[in-house]
Backbone:
């Protein structure tokens, strides 16, 4: 049972987790402390709580190895019997092996979400991809549910599968910004307000995509490329400002592949 959570990392994910658990403390009685990873790494003596049930490593990827090594050397007593998890999406539990040697249970538990700010509502009803041993699963499951998420034990945890898992998050979030950026640039060139014209069609597209995923049906693709009207596509390309032309070509090529796969599956 979780009674105390220690979060190491004061970035958007760490702070969002800290705010979420602090917000439910009056109901659960769970206490939480949040430390910066740099503060922990640079300390020469332990100041972490001996009573912590769960340690969450939410630091930048570049600091993770150093943080784990430091914890193994200076905090074995605090970690013994506790659950230590990192929230990196592409790394597995193997990086945490030095902490297992300290008597800790280990888990890789990744919140499948984009954190544009410190906002605990981003944790609501999201999936967490979890890699852990059976002994670590009960506390990992409890922690993820406490934050408002859905814990899912990944069926494939080899390095290639983990990278594909993380790339799915990148594609669902970051890659869409390439299309939004192109649309915003073209809206500005056309003299129309992006917030009035683009936001409703973006929201409708997301709703259509969500419905297709829930129903297991093809995406509701529309437009000249789907209709095979290559003359119209060429006219659009000819009208592109020079600084947006390459972006338009790349996204058009990507959509061609989507259309081709959709046609081959019919």
Residues:
């Amino acid at each position: 049972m979780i009674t105390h959570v220690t979060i190491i990392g004061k970035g958007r994910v760490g702070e969002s987790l800290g705010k979420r658990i602090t917000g439910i403390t009056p109901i659960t009685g769970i206490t939480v402390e949040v430390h910066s990873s740099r503060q922990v790494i640079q300390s020469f003596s332990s100041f972490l709580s001996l009573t912590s049930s769960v340690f969450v490593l939410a630091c930048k990827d570049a600091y993770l190895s150093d943080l784990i090594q430091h914890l193994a050397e200076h905090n074995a007593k605090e970690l013994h019997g506790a659950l230590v998890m990192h929230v990196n999406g592409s790394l597995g539990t193997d990086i945490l092996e030095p902490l297992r040697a300290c008597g800790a249970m280990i888990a890789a538990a990744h919140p499948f979400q984009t954190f544009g700010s410190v906002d605990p509502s981003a944790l609501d009803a999201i999936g967490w991809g979890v890699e852990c041993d059976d002994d670590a699963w009960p506390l990992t499951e409890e922690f993820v549910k406490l934050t408002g998420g859905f814990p899912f034990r990944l069926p494939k945890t080899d390095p290639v599968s983990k990278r594909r898992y993380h790339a799915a998050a990148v594609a669902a979030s970051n890659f869409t910004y390439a299309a939004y950026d192109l649309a915003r640039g073209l809206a500005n060139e056309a003299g129309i307000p992006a917030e009035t014209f683009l936001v409703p069609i973006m929201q409708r597209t997301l709703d259509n995509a969500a419905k297709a995923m829930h129903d297991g049906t093809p995406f509701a693709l529309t437009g000249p490329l789907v209709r095979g009207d290559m003359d119209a596509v060429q006219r659009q390309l000819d009208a592109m400002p020079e600084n947006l032309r390459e972006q338009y070509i790349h996204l058009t090529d990507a959509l061609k592949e989507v259309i081709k796969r959709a046609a081959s599956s019919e």
